[in-house]
Amino acid sequence: MRQKRAKAYKRLMHAYCVTFGFRQPYQVLLDAAFCESIARSGIDVEKQLETVLQGNCKPMITQCCISELYALGPSGQHVVDMAKNFERRKCNHREAIPGDECLTSVVGTTNPHRYIISTQSEPLRNHLRSNVPAVPVMHVKRGVTVMEPMSEVTKEKKESMETQSLAPPPSSIPAPPPPTASTSTDPTSKSTAPPPKKKPSGPKAPNPLSVKKKKVVAPPPTAGKGKGKESVKRKRDEEVEVTKKKAEEKKDEEDDGEGPLKVNIIGGDGEAGGEAGEGAGGRKKKRRRKRGKTVAGAGAAEEAEGEGSGEDSE
Ligand SMILES: [Zn+2]
Prior knowledge:
By secondary structure, the protein is of the alpha/beta class. The chain folds into 2 domains: about 5-165, 5'-nuclease (Rossmann fold, 3-Layer(aba) Sandwich); about 230-314, no CATH class. It has 15 helices and 6 strands. The chain has helices spanning about 5-20, 30-40, 45-55, 65-70, 75-85, 100-105, 120-130, 150-165, 180-185, 190, 195-200, 230-255, 260-270, 275-295, 300-314; strands at about 25-30, 55-60, 85-90, 115-120, 135-140, 145. The chain has a 6-stranded mixed beta sheet, with helices on both faces. Strand 4 (about 115-120), helix 7 (about 120-130) and strand 5 form a beta-alpha-beta unit. Helix 14 packs antiparallel against helix 15 (about 300-314). The chain is rod-shaped. Bound molecules: zinc ion. Zinc ion binds near residues 62, 64, 91, 97 and 102. Zinc ion (ZN) binds next to helix 4.
């Protein structure tokens, strides 16, 4: 096959694949006369078709067409032998009808099974060319298998399909405004409608990084044992107040370099009364000193720790 024609056929089949969903192996339906012509040339059919279409091919023949070949008698035996290797396409014609009619009915008006029709019948080719889009047609001309250029109906169909695919799908088109009943009865609904659209663009709450952090006061560990929620809450509030007061007192007292203890007092001395503040502070200081003294002995340190914690929790 000439280079130029090969290129043209390749482009043609590519267009059929892209636009109309043709796939390899291409299903090629051959009529009786085409089989005869190609058998005369002596070339392997599949190879010939694949040379023209430049892809894998599956030669097929309908029941009606092969019975036409049988009708040729002994002279057409070699053609029958060749056609027997093709895949048989069930056309469901009980009595064999002329090949042209059979292929016409198989292709229908839209060629749903994406057949490529190989026929020597001029009337059939004319019919397909002018009536059925998306049917590649082949025939043998002076011993050469040729493919017809894309027909006008096929081109029109291709263009309409391409413009369809370029147009935005119906889902992306903005939905029509809500029912007129709501807009007509409520004039403010129009002004209130836009906000929901804008919602996703901005944050709902203020930027958490720009907001001052809330002070978290640790709840007293012994609060809320077997008491109602109400009373527990009230008690907790009182305790928090007391703790705050105490903390302030501690602060004044511990200005001489005992800062870190403050945290301990707030956390652990929840149950202690306001008047015990001074005493507790004193104890703490003592404990600190004690611990410092007994660093050498681990056992002693543990003892001191136990004593201290015991005093604190009570
Ligand atoms: Zn048939």
